[in-house]
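Structure tokens please, single chain.
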Amino acid sequence: MVSRPGRGAIRLSLGLLVLTAAAAPLCAQDLSPRAYVITPSGSNAITLSYSYNTGDLQFEGAVPITDATGKFSVPVLAYYRGFGLFGRSANALAVLPYAVGTFKGTVLGEPHSIYRSGLVDSQFRFSINLLGGPSMTLADIVQKKWRQKRLLGVSLKVVPPTGQYDPTKLINLGANRWRFKPELGYSQAFGRFILDGYASAWFFTKNPEFFSNNQYVTGTQVQTQSPIAAAELHLSYDIRPRYWVSLDANFWNGGTTSINGVENPVTQQRNSRVGATASFPITRHGAAKVSYAQGAYIRFGGDFRIFSVAWQYSWLDHENRGKK
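Here you go.
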């Protein structure tokens, strides 16, 4: 890639700053306790959430940026649907995020900042229980006095390129590529305690038009990224029905990026986050959730403190309240 000196280098460096900052919290940094919990067939939930992210960015010398910081908000609308499939409990989730952020840094000795606002790539997740969670109505759960013991499930998250993207610009909220995350989840109850563990991997298709056909780059550039392996661990405690708290942690490794087949090994991520989550009922159908997370070890990418609040309204289909 050929860049003009001065202004071109500044825009390139700040663009890499924003790309790293915006993508990481929406990808491998997920902390999702009780992701494989069993819900009755015909369960529905709409969730409105808001997260505020603030912190530093680590680049390991990949770009000439110092004192890099970011502050951005991510409001999210999500819809959840629980159902039975082949006699097993299953569910589907659709997520629509929006991001608003400001990123600052000193580039080549000069302070610069960037503001962005727009749609981020949507997310879709399908999950099915393999062990310990048959498909049940609410009446089945009550009559059989069902309680969680040991659960084993699998899921697939798909992130299509639906976010805002302009191939002539380096700074975009959409990734212009597909992302896939297969995952194996295990959950074990010990009285009021529940231990959750997940093992997953992110896979990425190529971005066929990465920062291309503009005044800095002649022609088309192709960006690729190696897979990211990730693991999560959660220990939660039931205070009373629908009221629980959780300690959360994760680790991920990989994700080295390449431009036109040229790999940059400095971009490999080897990071970890820790946090805590609390969920509690407000009304019969409404519940609130609050969470906090921060970096435990960050080799490359955003070292953010993330504060999140969510409101969830849930209900059951009428025909699924008393029968299968």
